[in-house]
Specification:
The protein is of the alpha/beta class. The protein has helices spanning about 1-25, 45-60, 80-90, 105-110, 125-130, 140-160, 185-195, 215-230, 240-250, 275-285, 315-330; strands at about 35, 70, 95, 115-120, 135-140, 175-180, 205-210, 235, 255, 265-270, 295, 305, 350-355, 365, 370, 375, 395-399. Helix content is about 40%, strand content about 20%.
């Protein structure tokens, strides 16, 4: 009897020990607190894209609302530093800010709170600052914009193409509502234009700026001005529903950014899916691993996305997009292939870009590369944030 009881006790002890060891192995991740700082709020398609992704990534990683905080309406000024510092003082392990102008304030916080990780979208200085707790992230959204451009080109052909699919010069003019004349916007509208050009060779594009990331009234009136100037299709790099609304009112096809508009004139949109980065960021912090200085999302890793086609998309668009997407992912197609565009009538063979952002606007890095006989501008290779700031032939800026 005693032996049976002893065996039972030993079995229980062993079971408890095994359970403890398994529990330890399964819970070696650190419990963390994470914060997201947004320039605007849900009414901005840009910020909403971050907010939705942050919530999804936190849920995927087992963080509850007690473990994370999202604050909105934080301008690109000292308030960003104040909020980041507050989070650090209150035990947060990682703080992410979503707007370009937040960068210097986040860096200031990173220098003060060395045990907290600070991550930032669209920034340029992580690879030169040399801080172990400050990182940048962005994506090769030019891939998505190129695909959106292909869809736009097919729409022009459907509406205005002749029996051979050719579009007259008059009907091959498109418009683009840009926020600011920064490299991020220039890279985006150029890749979109090259996507259209791959379908409609004689396409031209007029770009007008609102000088604001988010101004619904200005975006609407800017789109209306482009339509009045003869543009047959409008796209945008701005964060409200202003341009899509103008297109809907005028019956002009629209290519949006950061989400579907649900409108009759909507063709397609491209966007960055931030879930892959947020999951990576959280994983690194949970497991005590370093976060890379410059993380770049792509079509291949799921960070660059195009939406489902809208009601206005041309027949056969999805099949064409699948074909082009496969080529972008396997590298056989380069968005900024120098043979597909000219600058002052000449093809580029070299170009110095201001990759190391020292505030002096002095270019120092040759970003033209040749692989497998293709010479191309190598965007997002030297840092995650765009540095394509070239004004190519066929595009006119109106500031």
């Amino acid at each position: 009897m005693f032996k049976k009881i002893l065996c039972m006790v030993l079995a229980v002890v062993m079971l408890v020990g095994v359970t403890f060891m398994l529990g330890s192995c399964g819970n070696d991740k650190k419990d963390i607190k994470a914060a997201l700082i947004c320039l605007h709020g849900d009414s901005s398609t840009y910020d909403k894209n971050f907010i939705d992704a942050f919530k999804q990534a936190c849920a995927n990683k087992g963080l509850t609302e007690e473990n994370y905080t999202i604050i909105t309406g934080i301008p690109e000024g000292t308030e960003c530093y104040d909020k980041a510092a507050d989070f650090a003082d209150n035990g947060y392990d990682v703080v992410f800010a979503d707007s370009f102008g937040h960068e210097s304030y986040l860096i200031k916080a990173a220098k003060e709170f060395e045990n907290v990780q600070f991550c930032h979208a669209t920034g340029t200085k992580a690879h030169t600052e040399g801080l172990e707790n400050y990182q940048n992230a962005f994506a090769s959204i030019y891939q998505g914009r190129y695909l959106a451009g292909v869809a736009a080109g097919l729409k022009l052909v459907e509406l205005y193409g002749d029996a051979n699919g050719k579009v007259s010069d008059e009907n091959a003019k498109i418009g683009y509502v840009g926020a600011w004349p920064y490299a991020e916007v220039v890279s985006g509208y150029t890749s979109f234009y090259l996507g259209v050009k791959s379908v409609v060779e004689n396409v031209t594009m007029e770009v007008r700026y609102t000088n604001s990331w988010y101004n619904e009234a200005a975006e609407k009136t800017t789109a209306e001005a482009l339509i009045d100037a003869g543009c047959k299709l409008i796209s945008q790099h701005a964060d409200s529903m202003g341009a899509p609304t103008a297109c809907e009112n005028a019956g002009v096809p629209n290519v949006a950014y950061n989400g579907e508009t649900g409108k009759n004139t909507f063709v397609i949109a491209s966007r960055i899916d931030w879930v892959p980065y947020f999951e990576y960021m959280l994983d690194c912090v949970m497991n005590g691993k370093d976060i890379v200085d410059d993380w770049t999302g792509t079509l291949a890793n799921g960070a660059v996305k195009i939406t489902a086609l809208g009601k206005a998309a041309a027949e056969g668009t999805q099949a064409k997009l699948d074909e082009v997407s496969a080529k972008l992912q396997n590298g056989s197609l380069k968005v900024f292939d120098c043979s597909t565009f000219t600058v002052g009538g000449e093809h580029l063979t070299e170009y110095l870009a201001d990759v190391d952002d020292a505030g002096d606007f002095v270019p120092e890095t040759n970003v033209i590369k040749t692989e497998n006989g293709v010479t191309f501008f190598d965007e997002s290779a030297f840092r995650s944030a765009p540095y394509f700031d070239i004004r190519i032939d066929g595009i006119t800026e109106v500031k």
